[in-house]
Design a protein that fits this description.
Pathway: Glycan metabolism; L-arabinan degradation. InterPro entries: GH43_arabinanases (IPR050727), Glyco_hydro_43 (IPR006710), Glyco_hydro_beta-prop_sf (IPR023296). Keywords: Glycosidase, Hydrolase. By secondary structure, the protein is mainly beta. The protein has a single domain, classed as Tachylectin-2, Chain A. It is 0% helix and 44% strand.
Amino acid sequence: MIFGSYEEGLYQAVMNNPPTSVVPNSYAKLAYEPAGIHADEGANMFKHGDYNYLFYSNGVCCGFDTKKPAAGEEYKIKVCRSKAGVMDFRDADGKLCTEGGGTIVLESHDNVYGPGGQGVYDDPTYGPILYYHYVDTTIGYADGQKQFGWNKLDFSSGWPVTTAADTTSTAQTT
């Protein structure tokens, strides 16, 4: 089980079988942003090839219509990976996720602002899909105006890279 959010970092705990409780003393820190507001949350683990990829949101997520964060501090999607899938998650530069590492997978660009709240799904037709919410700057910055988006992921380099979004499939979130 993966859990955690702002301030304390992202953790993993081993579940008992059946998964109704956590194995005592099995907590492991997976990611932590030591700088600023410690804004890591929404972790999602995805196994691809020999690696377990830890996708998570980093930055300020909400309230963009009333207080827009400084450029680069808004939500973005990061990833680290580990062969074991327990601890030792590192970014593409080899920096530990527990020491502020994290390779950016998707960040603000064009009319897409503050993407996050992500997950990864292995679609039988398209392969790995990164799905997320974002602000479409042509629509508005309020939390209730966020949109749903998705991109295919290309792992050919060993790291997930987004390919062009299918903009015909976006829908407003509630």
